[in-house]
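Entry for pyridoxal-5'-phosphate complex. Fields follow.
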Amino acid sequence: MKDFRLKRVDLRSDTVTKPCQDMRRAMVSAKVGDDVNGDDPTVLLLQQKVAKLLGKEAGLFLPSGTMSNAVAVRTHTQPGDEIITEEQSHLYLYEGGGYAALSGCSVALVPGKRGIMCPEDVERRIRRAEGSRGHYPNGRLVCLENTSNRGGGTCYPRYIVDAISQIAHSKDCRLHLDGARLFNAAIATKEKPARMVRDCDSISICLSKGLGAPVGSVLVGTKSFIEQAHRWRKMLGGGMRQSGILAAGGIFALESNLNRLEEDHRRARLLGESLAEIGGLSIELDSIETNMVYVETVKPASSWVEALFGKGIDCFPLGEKHLRLVTHLHLEDEDIARAVIAFEEISIQMNQ
Ligand SMILES: Cc1ncc(COP(=O)(O)O)c(C=O)c1O
């Protein structure tokens, strides 16, 4: 039974956060214009800010990370091209097959270790029509995901991004980074975001995950890439009018919530270390690099989710024997402590 007296501890995702009062105030008082005509000053400011932070020439505000990735794939490729991505990547698993439906691309899947591809595997998967008597498609775009969601919030070391980019470019491929949680990766690896993405041709970042804005993603790249991406955004129906209201939430999020991501990482580690002591659960502690904890369960994950729900804790099952727990800006240390107690009680009830 759900206990409605308690504040729920929502560990389902970092997308569940709601804008705080200060963010809402910033949104209400945002200066706006018609962004389809390019004259919303708040959208322009957000785009410039993200482009500058990532060391790129220009940026484009989009409604979601999925649309950002779709626009990037469409801008970099032609129908009949192939994209190269990790086999558990969000772009491949969870974006409705947009690369095929919207860009007419096939996909070459690369195995990863906790979501992280190695440069040699990427190299092996890049196919070119030339020299294949026309049998192969042209591999045109390598896509990385940093942090890797299905990998458990794992990070690419900078030298691997550099090496993959070098391989991609040497084979006349572009490199797109799905950086929905790029700032988590930058903080965890102590890298400057601009250095991490130095050799990437485009990067999409999300404002509505750990950063806590209600909506939005920004795609960055060269000026000419963004000009073309602007046209594809229009065609996909992503041109928004007085979207400065939304962009203001994004600016607030970047200014107030970026450095605090470290707290989410600390709490994820605290949670993981505490749960690792509990019977019926197992956790690879060295896989906890940012704000996610993947837990393997002896009993079915669905029975854990149901029992946790009754104790005010929300989380998602991942397959039959895994749970995914995600920390974010609405969680305090005491919420982590409550979650751990709930897990302990359930473990005893389940007789583990
Ligand atoms: C790695 C990654 N990329 C892209 C997305 C898509 O973002 P959105 O939900 O804004 O479409 C997500 C969403 O969870 C994600 O985890």
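NOTE: DSSP finds 14 helices and 13 strands in the chain.
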